[in-house]
Design goal:
The radius of gyration is 11 Å and the shape is globular. The relative contact order is 0.30. It is about 10% helix and about 35% strand. By secondary structure, the chain is mainly beta. A hairpin with a 2-residue loop joins strand 1 and strand 2. The protein contains 1 helix and 5 strands, in the order E-E-H-E-E-E. The longest helix is centred in the first third of the chain and has 8 residues. The chain has a 5-stranded mixed beta sheet, with no helix packed on it.
């Protein structure tokens, strides 16, 4: 299991950040993800593995004026 926004989600061996975002089917564009204490930027989503029992924080792009 991994934890996102206070909720548990199923973890699987070899799961990347890109896999997780596809599974969430979320409409937000995330520019940064924090896995435990490690920050991962968007260019590295497809090659960054998420370990079992990780705490994941999704940081979306914010626009304003």
């Amino acid at each position: 299991m991994i934890r996102i926004k206070g909720k548990n989600f199923t973890w699987r061996e070899g799961m990347t950040v890109t896999d997780l975002l596809k599974d969430l089917d979320d409409s937000y564009t995330y520019i940064l993800v924090r896995i435990n204490d490690k920050q991962v930027s968007r260019p590295n989503f497809d090659k960054t593995l998420i370990p079992d029992n990780a705490e994941v924080f999704l940081i979306s792009m914010i626009a304003g004026g």
